[in-house]
Backbone:
C-alpha cells in the first residue's frame, strides 16, 4: 500500500466557519465535529481538521483539480468576490496563471492561509 497523507490540522480563528468555507468553495464534504476539530473530507484519503488557535503562522495549501473542477471552484470564488491572483507573490492581481500548460490561482482564506488551485503541476525529475 502506498503511503498517503491522511489528515492535517488547519489552524483557524473560527474552526466551524473555516471548515464550511472550504467545503463551500472547494466542494469538499463537510463531516462536522470530531474530538476538538471540525473536519472536511478532501478525497478518499485526506481530511482537513480545523482547530482554533489564538496565534499561528499562515500556511500554504495547494489543491490540484481537474479543468472542470477549476471552472466550478473559480465560479464560486468569483460569486463570493474573493480576491485572487496568478502568483503567490501577487495573490490579488485578479489574473489566472497558465503554468505548465494548465491554469492556476492563489487566494487567501479569512485566516490568512494562502490557498492555491492548479490544474497542472511541475514534474520532478530525479537522476541517479
Residues:
Amino acid at each position: 500500500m502506498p503511503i498517503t497523507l491522511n489528515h492535517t490540522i488547519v489552524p483557524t480563528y473560527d474552526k466551524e466557519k473555516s471548515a464550511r468555507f472550504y467545503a463551500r468553495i472547494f466542494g469538499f464534504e463537510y463531516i462536522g465535529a470530531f474530538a476538538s476539530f471540525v473536519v472536511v473530507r478532501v478525497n478518499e484519503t485526506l481530511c482537513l481538521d480545523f482547530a482554533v488557535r489564538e496565534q499561528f503562522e499562515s500556511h500554504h495549501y495547494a489543491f490540484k483539480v481537474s479543468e472542470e473542477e477549476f471552472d466550478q471552484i473559480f465560479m464560486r470564488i468569483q460569486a463570493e468576490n474573493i480576491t485572487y491572483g496568478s502568483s503567490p507573490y501577487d495573490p490579488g492581481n485578479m489574473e489566472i496563471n497558465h503554468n505548465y500548460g494548465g491554469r492556476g490561482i492563489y487566494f487567501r482564506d479569512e485566516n490568512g492561509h494562502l490557498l492555491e488551485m492548479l490544474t497542472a503541476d511541475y514534474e520532478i525529475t530525479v537522476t541517479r
